[in-house]
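Can anyone check this?
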Amino acid sequence: MTPSEFEFLKNFLKTKSGLTLSNDKQYLVESRLQPIARSTKLETLSAVIQTIQRGGNRALETDVIEAMTTNESFFFRDKTPFDHFKETMLPALLENRATRRQIKIWCAAASTGQEPYSLAICLKEETSKMAGWRTRILGTDLSQEVLEKAKTGIYSQFEVQRGLAIQMLLKYFEQQGEMWQINAGMRAMIEWKKLNLLESFTHLGEFDIIFCRNVLIYFDQATKSEILGRLARSIPDDGYLVLGAAETVVGLTDAFKPVQGKRGLFQKKQTVQASTGSVSSPRLAVAGIQR
């Protein structure tokens, strides 16, 4: 791959997916795209890039984007966000939503489905508190391939052993040969959609909780700010945003405040207007691409 080809690919990936690659990642690009070159019989990466440059091959573009997207996930990953869900978010929402008795959750980087299914398990474990409540869990991802896997709810022995307690495995999964499938009732709790976070998601509606973990780290500062601003507009004033342990909103948006003592957990800020005593959301600091 020539320097100019790598530069084109960096710009292509940033425009299409928001992924920002540093100059030292050429080896990563080559290792991930070589299988595509072989499978499409284009033989070389230069041929792959030239085909994309000519345009008109959406399937190849999708394959390249999905190959460069990291889809690492496992059940109850990092544990802490799920403790926050059970101990902080869910009790507060059960109190604040007592009239409408509905909770909506969005996993914005659902990958192969372990995060949404982990949340579904958390809700099932609180059945006594959730009687009469409606819950909606939406899982979205840029990659259609990983979403298809998520829909099946089928995982290998290795995958279910990563973060999933044996009692939960036996309670909510059925063994199918060497694989395990989460039961039909759990699968019915989740809706799946393909979504690029760079594009508008206002059509999804409003969510009480948004999990957007370990995805903003791949974007530049301006794109992070722009996405966080739009996420803020999809959350009510008492709703929650969950980011990865290494992620923050500091310097990116003034729409959220950290929940004290809860790493990775944020709530919408509310501004008290002295003249009226009313409470409203602050003006969002949004930078970057306008869509």
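Reply from J.R.: I decoded it. The chain has two domains: 3-68, 80-280.
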